[in-house]
Design goal:
DUF1571, twelve-stranded antiparallel sheet, DUF1571 domain-containing protein, outer membrane lipoprotein receptor (LolB), chain A, globular, alpha+beta, about 40% strand, about 230 residues, 4 helices
Length: about 230
């Protein structure tokens, strides 16, 4: 009997610890505000972006080396199985706003200049390259949460561990980008670790920023093809 009571106590304790705190609207909005401020104070970053998107009811998983320099200069190299070796360079202020692409195949030496919104550039992608990055995610989520909070259109909850804040949002009508989101924010620098978006079918976007390094000593060589 004592053994059974002990088991029940442990299970109840784990359930309480793992359950997000309810009524955390002010805390979540404060964390998002700090994330926006922290992002405004960095000049660049490097990360491995693990990207999973649902397109035509199929999940596409990509692993990409990402270098980002403000105001908006991007270097991408696909390092996972999908499109391995592909490289993209994009600078909003150069090349007439087009992105430069080299595929990871025997034709790697050929460079294509593509409009980021073109059908070819958007093939297999939910977003164009000018929407990529931590800054855009922070801005999008902050705007949605603040708008929904003002309209009483969202249920928010919050939890944390030693390294991350976990923010949970459930939108109460269909005018927002997603039905639900989970956002994980690094405690040490307020940068996004992972962002997950849900619709009525489940996860449709999942972005993780691994091996994040801020304010790197980038040169022009870091934004050229290898």
């Amino acid at each position: 009997m004592k053994y059974l009571i002990s088991i029940l106590f442990v299970c109840l304790t784990i359930s309480i610890i793992s359950r997000p705190a309810i009524g955390s609207e002010d805390k979540i909005i404060d964390i998002l505000r700090k994330a926006e401020k922290a992002y405004s104070q960095i000049g660049n970053y490097c990360a491995v972006l693990v990207k999973k998107e649902r397109i035509n009811d199929k999940y596409i998983l990509e692993e990409i080396l990402l270098k980002f320099k403000k105001p908006f200069k991007v270097y991408l190299k696909w390092i996972g199985k999908n499109h391995k070796g592909r490289e993209i360079i994009f600078d909003k202020d150069k090349n007439n706003g087009n992105m430069l692409v080299r595929e990871g195949s025997f034709l790697h030496f050929l460079t294509h200049s593509l409009n980021p919104k073109s059908d070819m550039a958007m093939d297999g992608q939910r977003h164009s390259i000018d929407e990529i990055g931590i800054g855009n995610l922070i801005t999008k989520i902050s705007m949605e949460v603040n708008k929904a909070a003002q309209n009483n259109d969202i249920e928010l909850s919050f939890s944390e561990d030693n390294n991350h804040y976990a923010l949970y949002g459930h939108f109460l009508n269909d005018e927002y980008y997603s039905k639900k989101f989970h956002l994980f924010v690094n405690k040490d620098n307020y940068m996004i670790k992972r962002a997950v978006f849900y619709d009525s079918k489940g996860i449709f976007e999942d972005y993780t920023f691994d091996q994040l390094e801020l304010n790197q000593n980038f040169s022009e060589k870091d934004f050229r093809f290898y």
